[in-house]
């Protein structure tokens, strides 16, 4: 049986670094502002990542590094064999911004004079690759992009890779211009885990379901059947960029689920990762309800993970 | 555990749209790289490229499910056209498939905007001028996940699990390995997997600055090799569990036996000098496929034609195979380096080599290099018994991948 334990979750969003225990405070802060969540400021990142050569390195790589650094500073990798640790990172915007910056720089300086480091930022796996270099993670590393669900599919793949016996320790991440998140997951085995799990991933699903406008009961029914659950017994966290997300929220409420407010700010792939943090935070404060973290994307992607406090 | 077989293939590459032309060109050692013709970049030192010039409007598909084929981005056109060829080749009835997945790999995706055959700076200026605002339509238009969404919509692939890999030059192998795992472990019966990239001036400028481009021909493993040639294309495989393929009497091109992934964790562009990343990757693939180095008949090399990459790949081959390195070739010498598409196109080539028992050559080879002690099948195809192949793809960031493909055998 696959016991995919969640050890902790680390965030660096909008110039602030924190772990899941402080996520409610973060959510209150961002909801209180009338503006969008700001992109991370380079100068603050550079200061935070003191002593590292950050020159010309893209914002997503640095944000991910800032999130991982929290885990590193708290010794979360001490009991893990780094040569076996895998890292999977999803991003909605991927390297669109680094490509824009590179091309505009080439236009200004001339194609033969643009800085090569700026080109290395344009590949989608730049952030995961740099994390591997800086922390000597040598399991497997990859980057993916499936709209908003880019934040949930790294968890899906971490769970599956443990089930397939491809990996035992995975850092599932999301990276965007507004910041990054890193969730440490470990396959539970007797005597293996140094850190007590906060929760477990019990099941996962990821699909292209066609037009998100037609999101209806049938998706929910399929999930209930696949996961062998009833939505009415769950806490549900919903995120997405779909315009009709409120209608989806209504469908979920009608099914009797205990729902949590949708995060109104668009942080791309970080939204479902923040939802996961909210769920973990509730667990740390005593809640024991199983939870469904669900994200839907206007392109027609839907993905969810079932989280349980107990293994 | 299910056995995973290949029942359909599609390919777009410089010189060919379709696997028959592709095979004819490769087996004859024809080179389809040269002066850049369709795109302009005036001030660049190197203007050599591989372009799919035969992908004209005659190759376009009809509109479907609200998608106007002609208006699609070039990378989407490649993906949809090649998937269409692969599905037709597999003769599968999608309505009878119970559970399916789709995984594609890309390097530049839709992010490298070329309009009117030169870089569309305006879209980048517009993006930057929006400032720190995540609510903008440019991202929605350019993000790579949109490619797989368009493919799903075009072919009405509902309830399919999608994945879009951004693992640079190894993305195709990551996509194939991911689909293989889903079928092997019974999470799916059927998979559309591969890689795609359209020609990117951004990539050309970038590799030019890294001094990785050859000013003329790509000569992998040659003593005087000078670098790679940026190209474009798409390779798609249809994967199926064996029972399903046999049940519908599908043609089986070969079997995916396993794959390996590893990370150099060394440098963003340079491979680890001790070649341990590539070595571990091949060893993992062999172990995963349950074959020994002696079982490998041929190696489809990453073989980019750069000084360092070929040397490190050869070093890794020596570590894995000792003194008995099987014959090896790099089709990048003929069609250039199609980035995220390369590994998948090389998988298609490998399966065709199994079919014809013919190893295609490394073109443009003149002088052996003592740093690359390999038999690279210089210039002329070689008839030989090929039952098992390992296909390498090593990417930026030290993301390594190796795929093991075998002739299908009963039992």
SSE topology sketch:
The complex is a heterodimer of chains A (311) and B (411).
Chain A: E1 4-13, E2 16-19, H1 23-32, H2 42-48, H3 59-73, E3 86-90, H4 96-109, H5 116-120, H6 126-135, E4 141-144, H7 153-163, E5 169-176, E6 179-187, E7 199-208, H8 217-227, E8 235-240, H9 245-254, E9 258-259, H10 270-284, E10 291-296, E11 301-308
Helix pairs in contact in A: 2-3, 3-6
Chain B: E1 4-13, E2 16-17, H1 19-27, E3 33-35, E4 48-50, H2 74-90, E5 100-105, E6 114-115, E7 118-119, H3 121-130, H4 137-142, H5 145-154, E8 160-165, H6 171-184, E9 190-197, H7 201-209, E10 233-241, H8 242-247, E11 254-263, H9 276-289, E12 298-300, H10 307-321, E13 328-329, H11 332-335, H12 342-356, E14 358-359, E15 382-383, E16 388-395, E17 399-406
Parallel strand pairs in B: 5-8, 5-9, 12-13, 12-16
Antiparallel strand pairs in B: 1-2, 1-10, 1-11, 3-4, 6-7, 9-10, 11-17, 14-15, 16-17
Helix pairs in contact in B: 2-5, 6-12, 9-10
Structure description:
The complex is a heterodimer of chains A (about 300) and B (about 400). With about 300 residues, chain A is of the alpha/beta class. Chain A is about 35% helix and about 25% strand. Chain A is built from ten helices and eleven strands. Chain A has helices spanning about 25-30, 40-50, 60-75, 95-110, 115-120, 125-135, 155-165, 215-225, 245-255, 270-285, and strands spanning about 5-15, 15-20, 85-90, 140-145, 170-175, 180-185, 200-210, 235-240, 260, 290-295, 300-310. In chain A, helix 2 runs parallel beside helix 3 (about 60-75) and helix 3 packs parallel to helix 6 (about 125-135). The model of chain A has no long low-confidence stretch (mean pLDDT about 95). Chain B has twelve helices and 17 strands. With about 400 residues, chain B is of the alpha+beta class. Chain B starts with a strand and ends in a 5-residue tail after the last strand. Helices cover about 30% and strands about 20% of the residues of chain B. In chain B, helix 6 (about 170-185) packs across helix 12 (about 340-355). Chain B has one domain: 3-Layer(aba) Sandwich (Peroxisomal Thiolase, Chain A, domain 1). At the A-B interface, helix 4, helix 5, helix 6, strand 4 and helix 7 of A face helix 3, helix 4, helix 5, strand 8 and helix 6 of B.
């Amino acid at each position: 049986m696959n016991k995919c334990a969640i050890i902790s979750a680390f965030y660096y969003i909008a110039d602030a670094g924190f772990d899941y225990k402080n996520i409610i405070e973060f959510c209150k802060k961002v909801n209180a502002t009338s503006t969008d969540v700001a992109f991370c400021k380079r100068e603050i990142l550079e200061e935070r990542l003191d002593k590292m050569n950050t020159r010309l390195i893209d914002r997503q790589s640095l944000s991910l590094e800032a999130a991982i650094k929290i885990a590193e500073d708290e010794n979360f990798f001490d009991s893990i064999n780094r040569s076996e640790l895998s890292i999977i990172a999803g991003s909605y915007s991927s390297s669109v911004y680094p490509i824009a910056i590179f091309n505009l720089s080439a236009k200004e300086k001339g194609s033969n004079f643009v800085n090569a480091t700026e080109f290395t930022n344009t590949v989608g796996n730049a952030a995961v690759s740099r994390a591997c270099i800086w922390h000597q993670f040598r399991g497997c590393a990859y980057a993916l992009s499936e709209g908003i669900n880019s934040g949930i599919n790294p968890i899906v793949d971490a769970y599956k890779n443990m089930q397939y016996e491809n990996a035992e320790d995975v850092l599932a991440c999301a990276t965007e211009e507004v910041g990054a998140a890193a969730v440490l997951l470990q396959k539970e085995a007797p005597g293996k885990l140094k850190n007590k799990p906060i929760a477990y991933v019990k099941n996962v699903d990821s699909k292209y379901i066609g037009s998100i406008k037609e999101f209806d009961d049938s998706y929910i029914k399929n999930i209930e059947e696949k996961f062998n659950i009833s939505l009415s017994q769950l806490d549900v966290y919903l995120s997405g960029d779909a315009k009709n997300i409120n209608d989806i929220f209504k469908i979920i409420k009608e099914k009797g689920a205990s729902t949590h407010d949708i995060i109104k700010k668009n942080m791309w792939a970080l939204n479902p990762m923040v939802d996961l943090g909210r769920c973990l935070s509730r667990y740390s404060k005593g809640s024991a309800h199983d939870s469904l973290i669900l994200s839907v994307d206007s392109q027609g992607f839907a993905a969810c993970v079932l989280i349980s406090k107990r293994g | 555990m299910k056995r995973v077989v290949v029942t359909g293939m599609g390919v777009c590459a410089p010189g060919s749209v379709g696997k028959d032309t592709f095979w004819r060109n490769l087996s004859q050692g024809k080179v389809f790289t040269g002066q850049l013709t369709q795109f302009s970049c005036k001030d660049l030192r190197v203007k050599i490229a591989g372009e799919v010039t035969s992908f004209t409007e005659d190759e376009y598909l009809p509109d479907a499910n609200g998608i106007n084929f002609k208006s699609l981005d070039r990378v989407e056109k490649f993906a949809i056209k090649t998937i269409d060829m692969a599905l037709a080749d597999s003769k599968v009835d999608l309505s009878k498939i119970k559970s399916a997945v789709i995984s594609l790999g890309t390097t530049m995706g839709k992010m490298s905007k070329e309009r009117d055959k030169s870089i569309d700076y305006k879209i980048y200026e517009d993006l930057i001028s929006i400032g720190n605002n995540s609510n903008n339509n440019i991202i929605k238009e350019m993000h790579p996940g949109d490619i797989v969404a368009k493919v799903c919509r075009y072919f009405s692939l509902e309830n399919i699990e999608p994945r879009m890999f951004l693992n640079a030059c190894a993305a195709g192998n990551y996509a194939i390995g991911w689909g293989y795992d889903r079928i092997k472990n019974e999470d799916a019966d059927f998979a559309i997997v591969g890689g795609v990239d359209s020609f990117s001036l951004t990539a050309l400028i970038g590799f030019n600055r890294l001094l990785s481009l050859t000013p003329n021909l790509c000569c992998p493993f040659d003593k005087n090799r000078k670098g790679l040639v940026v190209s474009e294309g798409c390779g798609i495989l249809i994967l199926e569990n064996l029972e399903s393929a046999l049940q519908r009497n599908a043609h089986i091109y070969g079997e995916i036996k396993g794959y390996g992934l590893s990370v150099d964790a060394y440098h963003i562009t340079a491979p680890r000098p001790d070649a341990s990343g590539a070595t571990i990757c091949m060893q993992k693939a062999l172990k995963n496929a349950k074959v020994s180095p002696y079982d490998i008949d041929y190696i489809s090399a990453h073989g980019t034609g750069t000084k360092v990459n070929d040397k490190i790949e050869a070093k890794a081959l020596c570590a894995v195979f000792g003194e008995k390195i099987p014959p090896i070739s790099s089709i990048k010498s003929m069609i250039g380096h199609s980035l995220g598409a390369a590994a998948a196109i090389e998988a298609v080539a490998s399966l065709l080599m199994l079919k014809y028992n013919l190893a295609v050559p490394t073109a443009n080879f003149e002088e052996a290099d003592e740093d690359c002690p390999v038999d690279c099948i210089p210039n002329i195809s070689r008839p030989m018994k090929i039952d098992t192949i390992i296909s390498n793809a090593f990417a930026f960031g030290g993301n390594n991948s190796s795929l093991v493909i075998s002739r299908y055998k009963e039992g």
